[in-house]
Amino acid sequence: LKKKMKILIVCATPWELKTVKTQIKSLNLKIKLQIDYLCTGMGNYAMILALTKYLTQHAQEEFFLVNIWVCGYYTSSIPPKLLQIWRIKNLATSKELLPPLPFLFGEVASIYSSEIPKTRWDIDWEGFVDMESWGFELVADHFRFPRLLLKVPCDKVGEETLNFDRTLALSKLAQGINYQDLIQKILSRAEKSYH
What integer is the mean pLDDT of 58-68? Predict the structure, then answer.
């Protein structure tokens, strides 16, 4: 008999996690969900350590991992409300990871993963940047769990990063994702993997 798959929502900061958790708890879902929440701290190293520790401590469980939080951007046009990450380039090593796309949920995009907050865009072309995607994908791939990386572009790298507006970021995180649809798609995907 197969174990029921749990959803693990992973965020970097407590305020991001609280926002996501509040949105999910406010849904009028007809079924009882098995959702765990993990706050890892900022940066790839914190992500790798916290996620590895959590998954090792819960080794008997099956998870669908969902990485949700805000990211920086540097584009000449208005960024999309929501990104689904399919390619991650580590700015420190230039190595790339290609997360799977279990289903389409946001505008598919690549992201740069930086070890420090980017306050200056010194990359040759436009794009998106965060500090945790690389670590998340590295660990998720090692444990072979299905996963989804969702990013809400929030601050334009430069002045907006230096004067980060947490209230605006949380508002975009709350409103930029259709959480009802997200949970339904994850459950549908989890069902398929067990039949």
Answer: 92
